[in-house]
From TrEMBL:
GO terms for biological process: gamma-aminobutyric acid metabolic process. Pfam families: Aminotran_3 (PF00202). This is Unannotated protein. PROSITE patterns: AA_TRANSFER_CLASS_3. Gene3D superfamilies: Aspartate Aminotransferase, domain 1, Type I PLP-dependent aspartate aminotransferase-like (Major domain). Keywords: Aminotransferase, Pyridoxal phosphate, Transferase. Its cofactor is pyridoxal 5'-phosphate. Belongs to the class-III pyridoxal-phosphate-dependent aminotransferase family.
């Protein structure tokens, strides 16, 4: 459980052992399961990933926002080790166990909203979103679902239908689910310069009222900061205006915080950054359990209780080891120190990215909150997406031991979401690599 917190490249990337594994893999693993960087990782700690060839990468992706608290966080390792030796499975809907309830207490007490809340646990983000759809439909007796341009909600049939991009998520996998409607998102970098948050919300509301009808809509699902869409932070007032409209029309407001949630932005949930926002339901996953598969839906008790007994469940949802990890993560977050750290990391990253933007016009936009930051790359002097430069920078970072991820509807966003266990020194080291890549472009 220790690994020197240092970037170190000792072979070509991927190295010989990774290449051999990639060969084995290609024989037996479906090519539908792609790989961004074929460096096979053997161990990780804090903010460092070590591959089978001995190369050490600075992790600027946290497994897409999962190990927010750091790889092999000692509290998580201890909680999971203790739990795995004691009880690994009963199925909560057959015979329950305490850690599931404890995780529910923590989640309901820290989710925003000045009302009584309840929770339920599942395995994946997509499963949480699907269950939120079921709950909202049952609670409202309505069928239609509103989602947004540039959104991402998962890979199951219903959630892939809720995604904005058809490729790669939906191509050839249809028919997609019906009753899903995409409304225009607030995208400050690409919206008209003078458009306010409330105006952007009115544009979406008008669309939904005309196209779907407010009285038909069971729920509106929105990521308070869009993840796969490229860390799009909606203009201030956008989310609150949508919430006011959902409340006036009996629509369940669901914040999908699978990527933005739990300490990533410097608060428990990104929703808390918007004045007055209190989502009826929030979907959580990824970062809530430090690497263990756990997801959940949390929100207004009367909506959560609308589902009949036996209507929600699943064999592995909220399994003992997963909820034990969730409890270990949430109890550590209660100190508040992790939120401050997310903000400090965000200051360093955004400060340096903005300086790079001044020198390199290929960076069109720098955006994000806390330790959830991104750059959108464009053809200099325009806002035309520049996926080629994005790909080149991505490769440069990977070759030099910095694991960054891409994103964006136009494949022209690099996102930075390091574990909060990272040191200032490593953050700077990773950004030096990025800066060198920009200079080379
Ligand atoms: N909602 C907001 O970001 C997952 C996708 C990884 P699952 N995003 C990463 C991939 O390529 O499959 C995500 C998300 C938001 C829902 C999900 C889905 O979460 O745990 O991947 O099902």
């Amino acid at each position: 459980m220790s690994l020197e917190q240092k970037r170190q490249i000792v072979t070509a990337i991927p190295g010989p052992k990774s290449l051999a594994l990639q060969q084995r893999r290609s024989e037996v693993i479906s090519s539908g399961v792609g790989t961004m960087l074929a460096a096979f990782i053997e161990e990780a700690h804090g903010a460092i990933l070590k591959d089978v060839d001995g190369n050490q990468f600075i992790d600027f992706g946290s497994g897409i926002g999962v190990v927010t608290i750091g790889h092999t966080n000692p509290g998580v390792v201890e909680a999971v080790s203790n739990q795995v030796a004691k009880l690994t499975h009963t199925l909560f809907t057959v015979t329950p166990y305490e850690p599931y309830v404890r995780a529910g207490e923590l989640l309901t007490s820290h989710a925003p909203g000045n009302f009584k809340k309840k929770a339920a646990f599942f395995n994946s983000g997509a499963e949480a979103v699907e269950n939120a759809v079921k709950i909202a439909r049952k609670a409202t007796g309505r069928t239609e679902i509103a989602v947004f341009d540039h959104s991402y909600h998962g890979r199951t049939n219903l959630t892939m239908s809720m995604n904005f991009k058809v490729h790669p998520y939906g191509t050839g996998f249809g028919p997609l689910a019906g009753s899903v409607h995409h409304a225009p998102m607030s995208y400050p970098y690409r919206d008209p310069a003078e458009m306010t948050g409330p105006e952007a919300a009115t544009r979406a509301i008008t669309y939904l009222e005309k196209r779907v009808g407010a009285a038909q809509i069971a729920a509106l699902f929105i990521e308070p900061i869009q993840g796969e869409g490229g860390f799009i932070v909606p203009a201030p007032g956008y989310l609150k205006t949508l919430q006011d409209w959902t409340r006036a029309n009996g629509i369940v407001f669901v914040a999908d915080e699978v990527q933005s949630g739990m300490a990533r932005t410097g608060k428990w949930f990104a929703s808390e950054w918007e004045e007055g926002l209190e989502p009826d339901l929030i979907t959580v996953a990824k970062g809530i359990a430090g690497g263990m598969p756990l997801s959940g839906v949390v929100g207004r008790a009367e909506i959560m209780d609308a589902a009949h007994a036996g209507g929600l469940g699943g064999t592995f949802g909220g399994s003992p080891t997963a909820v034990a990890a969730g409890v270990a993560v949430m109890e550590q977050y209660e100190s508040g120190n992790w939120f401050n750290r997310a903000l400090e990391i965000g200051e360093i990253i955004s400060g340096r990215l903005n300086a790079m933007k001044n020198s390199y016009p290929v960076i069109g936009d720098v955006r994000g909150r806390g330790a959830m930051q991104a750059i959108e790359l464009v053809e200099p002097g325009t806002k035309n997406p520049n996926p080629a430069a994005t790909e080149a920078l991505l490769k440069h970072c990977h070759q030099n031991g910095v694991l960054v991820l891409n994103a964006g509807t136009y494949n022209n966003v690099l996102r930075f979401l390091p574990p909060l266990a990272i040191s200032d020194e490593l953050v700077h080291d990773a950004l030096d690599v990025l800066a060198a890549g920009l200079a080379k472009l």
